[in-house]
């Protein structure tokens, strides 16, 4: 049998097939719809295609959740798809998850710094990830949407090296959702309260300073 890496397919096609199999193997589904999880990477790729990405970026978009969610290792990604793709995937993989433990606010702040030092290409993919994940969160889970929108806005503050067009789309979607929550609750106090909680643990100014120092 021809090794997967040597099969006569493009890099992006191999990444699509591999990601589909990896997410299916652990029976991963989308949280609210129950759809096969691969619909999310597919949506991320579709958004990314708007900016004429490199094949390595497209492959990383397909693979961006495989290490975090399926048990695939970065070593295997490197072996099958090359160093550049693995580098992007590493930048898109959360360093703190529910599996590693700890409160959500601590996990998200740790991942915020990780995203802040990602390269422009990885930040562009991350913007696509945010756009897709935030599309219907308010409809499916209005309570969870509140901290998620605060986390999204904090992420947007550090993803400024990503594609400007994608950044604008993500920002508009974030603002739309925040305003919708304001209207539903009848006040804006929820946002300030949650924002201050995240800032108390890790101020954005500290994240940006660390990112600049590591650049």
TrEMBL record:
Keywords: Hydrolase, Kinase, Transferase. Transmembrane segments: none annotated. It holds the Pfam family HD_4. GO terms for molecular function: GTP diphosphokinase activity; guanosine-3',5'-bis(diphosphate) 3'-diphosphatase activity; kinase activity. InterPro entries: HD/PDEase_dom (IPR003607), MESH1 (IPR052194). Its EC number is 2.7.6.5, 3.1.7.2. Residues 33-143 form the HD/PDEase domain. This is GTP pyrophosphokinase / Guanosine-3',5'-bis(Diphosphate) 3'-pyrophosphohydrolase.
